[in-house]
Amino acid sequence: MDIVTRLGYLAVGVDNLEEGTEFYSRFVRLDLSEQVGRTAFMTGGTEHHWLRLEEGNGQGLKRIGYEVASEDALDVVRGRLQAAGITFTEGGDIKRERVHRWIRFIDPGGFSIELYVGMVERGVAPINNGVTLEKFLHAAWAAPNWEANTAFYQKVLGFKASDWIGDRAGFFRSADRYHHSLVLLNGQRPAFNHFCIQVESLDDVMRARNNALRWGVHLRDDLLRHAPSGSIGVYLKDETRGFAVEFCVGHPQLDDTHQARNLPMSPETRDVWLAELPDHRVAERLTSAREAVEVQSIISASDPASLVQQR
Ligand SMILES: [Fe+2]
């Protein structure tokens, strides 16, 4: 039974709602779906919100929301949380939160997680926003308690491991089958790392990149290609909130024949384009070419036909 279907939304605290919505509309190209009090709901798709910016509750990531397949799936998770001894709260307020029903809890790594069903939909996705956004794809964060945390996401929430980098990082997919909708990093303390939006083409990645640089937004990582998924992306820094926003293209969907690999902790795993090139050996080729010319001239000199030609 499918439990988690996809990354749903992030609740992010902002000190100033105007500043937050300006950053996320100008540089991440999200549209304002709605404002309720001092909370702004922003999206790049038909889903009502990918981000929920909340003023007056401190700055930075507050909660990570994943969508579940159905109310039945939510009930299954409810039972599993109880069995695992994890306390949770339940709610849902379609008027104020634009989500029908949710369960919230703290995961073994210390993050506030929401599983929900029934988010309001928009009639149409934002159009003509300069960067064609396709999907709110994945979230990545560092957390302590590595063994318990990675086991929790697989056994209780039903994520499947797509790849590992030893005990440093795990990539997990949900029912949407994209290579990862969750990345867990093995860290000393909880720290949200980034979220990723899949865009339509490399042109969209580059338009987002250049729009950021033009107006002074720093890149955390410039254009790279990750080994685990093979996707190409750039990372913009949201320095005010303390995490990054990734724009990527070419993130594959897997089927259940995929066997999780264990990749090395190396620069090339992070960016395959960092692999050292093979020895070029141009100097040696030049030497042998010179020798070849010398050999050719000896042959020519001993060839009567060439002597005839020289006359
Ligand atoms: Fe990523």
How would you describe the overall organization of this protein?
By secondary structure, this protein is of the alpha/beta class. The protein folds into two domains: 4-274, 2,3-Dihydroxybiphenyl 1,2-Dioxygenase, domain 1; 278-311. Helix content is 25%, strand content 38%. The chain is built from seven helices and 17 strands. The protein has helices spanning 17-26, 71-84, 146-155, 202-214, 267-270, 282-301, 304-310; strands at residues 4-14, 31-36, 39-43, 51-55, 60-68, 88-93, 99-106, 112-119, 133-143, 160-165, 169-173, 182-186, 191-199, 219-225, 232-238, 243-249, 261-262. The protein has a nine-stranded mixed β-sheet, with helices on one face. It has an eight-stranded mixed β-sheet with strand order 2-3-4-1-5-8-7-6, with helices on one face. The protein is globular. It starts with a strand and ends with a helix. The relative contact order is 0.13. It binds fe (ii) ion (FE2). Fe (ii) ion (FE2) binds at residues 138, 140, 194, 196, 246.
